[in-house]
Amino acid sequence: MPALWSPETDTNITAKYSQKNLDQKARNKSAMQKELGWPQEGRRATVCLPLGMTEALGGQILKAMIPGLLTQSLELLIIGKGSKDYGTLFTELQKQHGHRIAILPSSEASIHKILAASDIALFLADTKGSTEVQACLSYGVIPISPECETLENYDPVQERGTGFLFAPAKTPEQTAWSAFAALARALETYKFPYDWRTIQRQCMESVK
In 10 A of CB 176, how many CB atoms? Predict the structure, then answer.
């Protein structure tokens, strides 16, 4: 992982941080919320879509998840890249829910700021070899992802894991239920700061 993708040395973000001072990560969320004109609510989970969205990235799954996502106490940061259809969908969502959904530029500086501000990253397709997953781990952003070899599903009993994983099903609608259940587990765990910090440290350690 190049130094460019390390929150310890990143000059694009408001506050640098590491495994040893993860409390500083919260300053980046506050800065993002302020920039977007959102309430500065530190305990509301911030979820990002670090790849934007296309059909191949799980677009149909996302569409099935949206009604459930909107019932949750979360903010959504979307990197503005992907197919035109999903750009239109996200633009409409931002128009309706501008107090907690934002589309941001896909510039390198913007991506760094999104990672520093986010708690959770949503991946809905195979993440094998994904540099974006590695970047999320480096920044202590915990992935929701299909089951894969590079991430370990969080076990609350053992207090071990680097993500909240789900098993893809036969249809996008069925997979959406599975992915939403993984997100719900993540959001429930997020309510417990000590447990969340433990997972963040394990994520960051896994890419050292």
Answer: 23
pTM, rounded to two decimals:
0.95
- DSSP letters, 164-192, are EEE---SSHHHHHHHHHHHHHHHHHHHTS
Cα(58)–Cα(65) distance, integer angstroms: 11
CB atoms within 10 A of CB 124: 24
In Å, the largest CA–CA distance within the chain is 44
**What residues contact residue 168 under an 8 Å CB cut-off, 6+ apart?**
146, 147, 175, 178
What kind and span of H or E run contains 34? Answer: helix 25-36
Q: Which structure tokens are listed for 152?
A: 């370990």
Residue type (1 letter), 69? L
Q: Which residues contact 173 (CB under 8 A, 6 or more apart)?
A: 64
Query: CA-CA distance, 159 to 118, in Å (whole number)?
Result: 21
List phi, psi (to 5°) of 20.
-80, -20
- Indicate the pLDDT class of residue 4, thresholds 50, 70 and 90: low
Q: CA–CA distance from 107 to each of 2, 12, 113 (Å)? A: 18, 11, 10
Predicted confidence band at 65 (pLDDT cuts at 50, 70, 90)? Answer: very high
| All domains of the chain in start order, with CATH | 26-206 (3.40.50.2000)
